[in-house]
Every structure is written in structure tokens, then in C-alpha cells.
Amino acid sequence: MTIQPLPTVEASLSGRCERTSTFCKIMNSPYQFLAQAKKSFGFLVELGFRVKSEHEGTYASFKDGFDCIYSSKNLDVRVAYYDMELDIVFMKGRIAAPYLFLDHNLYANASGLAGCMFPFEKLGPVIDRVAKDIELHYEDVLLGDFAMWQKIEKIVLTPTVRKRFLP
After folding, report:
1. CA-CA distance, 89 to 119, in Å (whole number)?
2. CA distance 123 to 86
3. Model's pTM, two decimal places?
């Protein structure tokens, strides 16, 4: 008696089986964003960070994605992508400072990014671009520089005053 292997089910990006049109779990994702992010943010390891946790989903839905947290003795850096939103956050003590917030408020939008929403098809180059920007310009943030983090704390914790639009 010979044992026949079970047939593998190939699914499209929608999660539907190509052969039967029923929903099924995607076995091999065409996206490898976690691996790309770890490669692009590899410079953090050279600065004394280690990967504290990581998770990658199946990308069966636009809500799925990945999460990777780097940790050092001074702070944590979270690189995540869920709901089509690339979210990079620097965390030190009670302060959580998003990359895009710092880019706009401390670096005069040097990255040129207007937002953090990217479809799967456009995410790869953005991960590389943001990682390179952080590597080149955010060393004082990553090393936990006291003066820089005082400035960050001040702008993060200061309430924003909204202008009234109606008289």
C-alpha cells in the first residue's frame, strides 16, 4: 500500500481556491515584507538593538500584515504594517513617537511622505526608503540622546491647539 500525498490547495490573493472557488487559506504568500523590513532595518542590530518579537500574517486581506519590534537598553522601535498602514514608532518610557510625526515636526518632512497608507504593491520601496532615512538622520533618536528625547517629549505631549473654523 502506498500513501499518496494530499493535494496542495493553491489560492489567489482574494483567498479563493483557483480550482473550486471556495475560500481557503493561502499557503504561500507572494509577499515577504517582514523579511524585507528586517533586512532594511538591519542597521539597528549594529546600533545594539535586537529583535524582541516578530509576526507575519498571510496577506489574505488588506488588513493583514507584519509586526517587528526591535529593542535596545534605551528604547524600542516598532515596525508594523496592518490595514495598509506602515507604522514605525520609537518608544522610550512613556513616550511613543511615530516616525511620520517626527519627520513632519522635527525634520521638516525630509522624507517627502504625505501619509503612511500604502497598498501591498507600493510598500516595498517605501520600507527601504524610510529605513534609509532613519539610518541617515535618526541616530540621536535611536541612541536615546537625552536632549533629543526631551524635545520629542515636549512636542509629543504638548496638546495641539485647533483653530476654530467657524466664527
Report:
1. 20
2. 8
3. 0.76
